């Protein structure tokens, strides 16, 4: 234990908000959200997603940040402390650290594609394609090149390690303060470009006028799962960021701001992408390849497409970077708090370990393309295991812990610290949070979880 070294804190309130919003806003918003919405009928999915954010997202986010702030520890230490040493709950924290390794190991592979696409867009290769199929073929040829995929993956890991080594204030907070405003500006530029294209209104209709006939039970589950992933919940990233907060910070208001920023960026990404897709006569439902196959074609067809293609992939890489650093910070905080390691050593050793764990994911598109585990390639297996199993399971346990072990009354009195005047004005918020964390969130997350492992 490193009681000797004083634990860092955020330098400012806005520093925490931007860092946590940076964690939340990532590939989940700009890559996943638009393609899932595109595959599931647009507006109807968006509506259910927004409800999921309020029903599960906000209450669980508050719970995670609260556990972190109350204990000022990493997920393992935090659960151990609040549960008075229970082995079970300590292991729940450990599961979060493990999920951090796994998610980062494949997340950084996709982020590497985005870095690689900055270079491709600068080279102007998209202008040689006429159809998404040609763009898709090119994408496949890139990811089947071991050096291309592993090289950009390594570069992205190195960038994340670089930021985290500098620590909470000088690394994560400072990085987020520069990168997040840049991300907003780039996003607004892309939204304005999308909205001013001829035929943009078709894309807006798709995003805002619900077609309820496209909604099935599956849509609801996808929306719930997405609400979870996009807010970085279930593995202790928000808990760890919360652990650097001060007792005078207002958690409900901060959580509300983070959720608002995350949702705003997902919706703006939806506007930027669907206006462009519809204006150029392409289809919205092309799945995970939407931004890698379809957007390059969109860029070739739009005025100023060359510049906008470069901006887009820079934006995507920035968003991925601020999420990746939160994943790496969970692992780092664990080794610093629990094992007394220096930050530098923890980042260098476990950044490298994560890179090594990720290599089979990177090779899933080339050397290991024929290796399948229960019908999935290695990449999809790690993605499924972490995003569909470990995250919902972690979230479920967090909600149960707060609702039944720590007890909502105790949690609530911790939550009121720093938020006295807020609760004075909005007393109903305490009731909302208690009911949702104790009843709604566990039941709904349990359904998502059981569904994703095929039990229901
Ligand atoms: N929220 C991130 C995104 O939307 C992903 C993430 C999940 C980051 C879990 C940290 C923890 O891309």
CATH architecture annotation name? Orthogonal Bundle
* Major sheet details: none
- List the uncertain runs: none
Bound molecules: phenylalanine
Give the CA-based shape: globular
Count the E strands.
0
Number of domains: 1
Q: Please name the CATH topology.
A: Hydantoin permease
One letter per element, helices H and strands E, the order comes to: HHHHHHHHHHHHHHHHHHH
Rg computed from alpha carbons, rounded to a whole number of angstroms? 21 Å
State the helicity in percent bands: over 70%
Give a verbal description of the structure.
With 456 residues, the protein is mostly helical. It is 78% helix and 0% strand. It contains 19 helices and no strands. The protein has helices at 13-24, 27-39, 43-71, 75-82, 87-123, 132-143, 146-165, 167-195, 200-208, 217-230, 237-242, 251-279, 290-301, 305-339, 343-363, 378-405, 408-416, 420-425, 428-452. It is globular and about 60 Å long. The structure holds phenylalanine. The site of phenylalanine (PHE) has 15 residues, from helix 1, helix 2, helix 10 and helix 14.
